[in-house]
Write a structure and sequence with these properties.
The structure holds 2 protein chains of 2 kinds. Chain A is an all-alpha fold. In chain A, 78% of the residues lie in helices and 0% in strands. By secondary structure, chain B is mainly α. The chains are: A mainly alpha, B mainly alpha.
């Protein structure tokens, strides 16, 4: 059990360091929009989500109605429901209700993808290990950004904006190389996403909704045309 | 920001986000039987990350040329299967260096 925890902790380190730089940028933005460092840290501590927090921050600063806040979070973060649904299929017996309630709090994109890539089922020890580092990195990075962000030159903070996408690219490229099916699904999702973002005809679709739409269509097409055999355990172990 | 306003916003924001994540995980205890649904859920993480990265990565630095340089570096290193942190750091460094040169 301790070995699983340690394994999770180790897998979480690169995510934690990536989060450090991303949340650092969030901390800078929060204080520049009039929040105190403590408030910035509280947002990160209670939300643990990048795109949702950024949008929420802007709504707070604009004094938007609460219903708009709720709907924005719902659309941007609805992808987590899909991820939680997917993750629910990978959990072993140690994941009782209380652990599901606690760990779902930290089900971020990166943690979800990392857990999904583990061969076989995952248990609570591994998941606590996996989430601890990134959660600390996310909160501490926000604090550092909120306190010290103002003194960094803009060129540095702008370049840091790439950190999270660099991580995403690093996660999807190895399976992109190895699996023709995964490659097709990613290409469909990317093509759709770019089309919706760039064509004025689709400009009414919000960013959060665009991601859900692309992910659902691409995954459904993949599942329909290239169903994965049920022996997923062996296959993931081989990947 | 005034604390009372802030806390109400925070409660709505964090509450909605938590419920979205928690409900499916707490409610679904069994295994999905359908091959279609299994395959669908297998593809979801890749499709989500693909759609989140493109085209958003091109505006991540506030300047298209530096973002393109950073993205290119990330793609090459990712293709070589370097670790998450390596790819992220070198993408940022490349974008920063490009910003100095342009």
């Amino acid at each position: 059990m301790f070995a699983s925890y340690r394994k999770g902790l180790k897998h979480g380190i690169p995510i934690a360091l990536g989060y450090l730089s991303v949340s650092f940028a969030f901390g800078i933005q929060a204080t520049s929009l009039g929040l105190s460092p403590l408030q910035a840290v509280m947002i990160s501590f209670f939300n643990v989500t990048s795109a949702g927090q950024l949008a929420g921050l802007q709504l707070m600063a604009a004094g938007a109605p609460l219903i708009e806040m709720a709907l924005t979070q719902l659309t941007i973060n609805l992808r987590y429901a899909l991820m939680s649904l997917s993750l629910s299929q990978k959990l072993d017996k140690s994941m009782t209700l209380i652990h599901r309630l606690l760990l779902s709090f930290c089900n971020t994109d990166e943690i979800f993808v990392m857990a999904s890539q583990q061969p076989g089922a995952v248990g609570k020890a591994y998941l606590y290990g996996l989430t601890n580092g990134p959660f600390i990195g996310w909160t501490v990075g926000t604090l550092i950004g909120a306190l010290a962000g103002g003194i960094l030159p803009a060129a540095v903070t702008e370049a840091l904006g790439l950190a999270i996408y660099g991580m995403f690219i690093a996660i999807i490229l190895p399976p992109f190389r190895r699996s023709r099916e995964v490659r097709a699904v990613i290409l469909i999702a990317v093509a759709m996403s770019c089309m919706f973002a760039f064509l004025p005809l689709f400009s009414f679709i919000s960013d959060g909704f665009r991601i859900i739409l692309c992910a659902v269509v691409a995954s459904a097409l993949g599942a329909w045309l290239m169903p994965q055999p049920v022996k997923d355990e062996e296959e993931e172990a081989a990947a | 920001m005034e604390w009372k306003t802030f806390l109400i916003y925070l409660l709505v924001m964090a509450g909605v986000t938590y419920l979205i994540r928690m409900l499916p995980l707490a409610a679904i205890r069994g295994k999905v039987k359908s091959v279609f649904l299994q395959s669908f859920l297998y593809y979801v993480p890749y499709a989500v990350l693909g759609a989140m990265t493109f085209p958003a990565v091109f505006s991540a630095t506030g300047s298209l040329p530096t973002a393109l340089v950073g993205t290119a570096v990330a793609l090459v290193l990712g293709w070589m299967e370097k670790g998450l942190l390596t790819v992220a750091v070198f993408a940022c460094v490349a974008a920063f260096a490009a910003g100095l040169l342009i």
